[in-house]
Amino acid sequence: MTRILTVQDISCVGQCSITVALPIISAFGIETSILPSAVLSTHTGGFKGFTFRDLSDDMPSIYNHWAKEGIDFDAIYTGYLGNAKQVDYILEITDKLLKKGGKLIVDPAMADYGKLYTGFDMSFVDEMKRLCDHADYILPNLSEATFMLHQPYVDHGYDEKYIEEVCKKLHRSGAKNVILTGVSFHPDQLGVAVYDGNKTEYYFTEREKRNSHGTGDVYASAFTGALLSGKTAYKAAQIAADFTVKAIQLTPADHWYGVTFEKAIPFIER
Ligand code: PXL
After folding, report:
1. Which atom of ligand 1 sits closest to the CA of residue 109?
2. SS3 string of 174-218?
3. Ligand 1 pocket by C-beta < 6 Å: which residues?
4. Distance of CA 34 to CAs 41, 70, 120, 132, 226, Å?
């Protein structure tokens, strides 16, 4: 039985991070253990006065207990982190608890639309980049990728050469496979570039007209579930894109803080 560990926050309300990862990865029939990076009353994208408890100090005792119990994982999938010092903890977990041949999947969840999420700065970005340099798969959106490369964010008007250069730079500094989301060469389309160190493959869907919160987490969770089910990275990227689009389509217009991905789960290609 495949068992993975996901490291990201618990946003108690908000349809993101762990509350999204658990049901989606479970839908692929994969056991998912959690290591919460922080507990927030809501996510940070539009709610005011949210609570935030950084769980960094609890992490070592949690994973040291797992080490004593002989618990290990087929993959480790990380998302939103509560503090830059968690990068070292994740690298230690990878070293101690990731099975031989297991995969480290990093979604550097920290920015969107050219802006860092509330609470993050460039020193956090540089630490997240260091984590990405150790990963088998990274899933940055274009904002996160350009922040990590210290390049200006460009939201349209670029070409394939530009996208491939972004992927190559991230690959050159260590990430083995780059799944770059939020790529668009045409206003009506949105897609993903999948770079494995040799070739770049693209997958596009019709662009949904609204901006939705939490879709990066829906995407990365579905990618992880599909990849760990034995799909290729390209096929997993495609399954995750189709699922995310379906989730957006099934979200009522007045539902502002997330996507109702729950309704799309029966449509996941497995
Ligand atoms: O969806 C990414 C995410 C995860 N966790 C928290 C967030 C966000 C995005 O804003 O605020 C706490």
Report:
1. 2
2. CCCEEEEEEECCCCCEEEEEEECCCCEEEEEEECCCCCCCCHHHH
3. 9, 11, 16-17, 40, 43-45, 80, 109, 117, 214, 216-217
4. 18, 16, 23, 20, 18
Which atom of ligand 1 lies at the shortest distance from residue 20's CA? Answer: 1
Mean pLDDT of the chain: 98
Q: Confidence band (pLDDT; 50, 70, 90) for 120?
A: very high
Indicate the pairing of strand 115-116 with strand 111-112.
antiparallel
Q: Is it the case that residue 211 has pLDDT exceeding 90?
A: no
The 10s digit of each residue's pLDDT in 122-161 is 999 999 999 999 999 999 999 999 999 999 999 999 999 9
User: Among 103, 178, 119, 189, which residue's Cα sits nearest to residue 148?
Assistant: 178
CATH pick for 3-265 out of 3.40.50.720, 3.20.20.70, 3.40.50.300, 3.40.1190.20? 3.40.1190.20
pTM of the model: 0.98
